[in-house]
């Protein structure tokens, strides 16, 4: 642990933080910016973060473990209810909550809904993070900061900090880490140095495939797609300097009618999804990959407890 040089009077801190906020608020992008490598899955479509992905920020004075939760929303299906339970459990367990509100959008009912829930969690310190500041001009940003301050006062939430950031421009991301760290308890590192996430590789691989499959599909489809990696095995008999990892994955949809959309004319879409996600998986795992991707119908999986368990929810 030679990298951990620090003044003797600064205690080492370690703990958990989670970002909350309505869909598309920029939580995953911020997680990635803080960790410095792509670990959470971002998408311009709402509610794509299904798994609790942890990104780990290693610093000389602290280790900050980021838990990326799905968005809290009105549950319409069994999946929706389970997701909300996951969110609330996470909130109660972490050391600090970062509430993300985009700078370029007025505070709406979705934000207030979450803020009310937050107000009910008394003990955990809450930092208001005004995200995407690159999309707002100075005046808009100032008004948003005031509105966030007012939201806290109206609901009886005492913000530990209000921080404007742009994850994509890398603006104030370091400052945010500086402000989160003092809110963590003193303690030794929770994860080995160098670990970026403890999310099993298979889940991350599945998320990368899902992300690629979501790009450019019709609006109602995202909720119907789930990906399960069945197997990841090094190809046998390869020379040591030319390894190949075989990945077998299934892409589940809810109805046979969705098959055509996912596969595309003459399989063109699926091929593209495979190529795109393979590049990302190779970057993530640092090894060449052979990706074997199949589309399967799991009828109405969102409403079926047995199917949900099988798909990892
Ligand atoms: N311009 C700009 N765009 C951003 C920034 N942060 C995120 N975005 C974009 O906003 C969209 C949503 O970002 P995500 O990080 O996926 O949002 P999220 O809150 O994790 O979304 P869910 O997973 O749906 O809850 C994506 O298209 C991002 O590229 C930012 O700082 N600046």
Structure write-up:
Strand 4, helix 3 and strand 5 form a beta-alpha-beta unit. The protein folds into two domains: 171 residues, Rossmann fold (3-Layer(aba) Sandwich); 110 residues, K homology (KH) domain (GMP Synthetase, Chain A, domain 3, 2-Layer Sandwich), CATH 3.30.300. A six-stranded mixed beta sheet has the order 2-3-1-4-5-6, sandwiched between helices. It has a three-stranded mixed beta sheet with strand order 7-8-9. It has nine helices and nine strands. With 313 residues, the protein is α/β, with parallel strands linked by helices. About 3% of the residues have low confidence. The structure holds guanosine-5'-triphosphate.
Give a brief outline of the structure:
It is a peripheral membrane protein. This protein has 313 residues and is α/β, with parallel strands linked by helices. Helices cover 34% and strands 21% of the residues.
pLDDT averaged over residues: 82
The CATH superfamily of the largest domain turns out to be: P-loop containing nucleotide triphosphate hydrolases
Counting structural domains, the number is 2
| CATH fold field value of the largest domain | Rossmann fold
- Structural class determined from secondary elements: alpha/beta
- Total beta strands: 9
**Quick one: overall form?**
globular
The low-confidence parts are 43-51
Name of the CATH architecture of the largest domain: 3-Layer(aba) Sandwich
Beta-strand content bin:
15-25%
Indicate the radius of gyration in whole angstroms.
Answer: 21 Å
Query: What is the CATH top level name of the largest domain?
Result: Alpha Beta
What's the helical proportion of residues?
25-40%
> Which series of helices and strands comes N to C?
EHEEHEHEHEHHEEHHEH
Strands in their spatial order, largest beta sheet: 2-3-1-4-5-6
Discrete helix count: 9
Largest sheet: 6 strands, mixed
Separation, N- and C-terminal Cα atoms: 37 Å
Structure ligands: guanosine-5'-triphosphate
